[in-house]
Amino acid sequence: MQVKEARELIGQVVTARIECGFARLHQEHEFARHPRPVPAFRPGDHAPGHDSSRVPAVPLAEVATTVTDDQPKVFLSFRMEYGGRPYRDMCVRRSWLHQVVRPGWAVMDDRVVVDVLEWATGPTGRRPSKVASCWIWTDFDEGPHGWRAWGDMREYDVDWRAQAPVLVPSDPVLR
Predict the structure, then answer these.
(1) Residue 143 and residue 46: Cα distance in Å, rounded?
(2) What digits encode the pLDDT tens for the residues 21-64?
(3) CA-to-CA separations, 3 to 52, 60, 117, 164, in angstroms, rounded
């Protein structure tokens, strides 16, 4: 896999995760039956971002990568009110290309791999046993923002017992 392909795949995964989060919130809060009122102030130019009665279509996320000698980081921000695309900026180590992208591990278990934190060696060779990824949060803000999403870094243990790797949050609270 090449970096361009990885960015495209990451964009698709981020978009799908945001859409799923919005759909889950829409269903859990019964927004179709009980839509939230439009804010009293004038919403941004993209009024559908404040329409809680339907799940908005999320445009394909834009993904940028920057190489860092520091700790990897992720920035993800998206607010429907602006009408733009979700933007994901990843600061990755120099090793990201060879350790994550080329072997095809840029996305594991529908999560974006930002860094490999630990390795395991088994009968099939060396593979990640702990990775850093971005946990994507979604919300409907009845105030200024409407539908929105953001992300922060989380650690995941990689379970290889299934046919495909499964990422399990290292933090028991998130399990």
Answers:
(1) 15
(2) 999 999 998 887 777 776 655 545 556 677 888 888 999 999 99
(3) 36, 17, 20, 22
Q: How many domains does the chain have?
A: 1
Q: What is the pTM of this model?
A: 0.87
Neighbours of 68 (CB within 10 A): 14
Gap between the Cα atoms of 48 and 53, Å rounded: 10
121 CA to centre of own chain: 28
- CA gap 102, 85 in Å, rounded: 27
Residue 164 located in a structural domain? yes
pLDDT tens digits, one per residue of 86-112: 998 999 999 999 999 999 999 999 999
Count Cα atoms within 13 angstroms, Cβ side, for 62: 7
108 in a domain, yes or no? yes
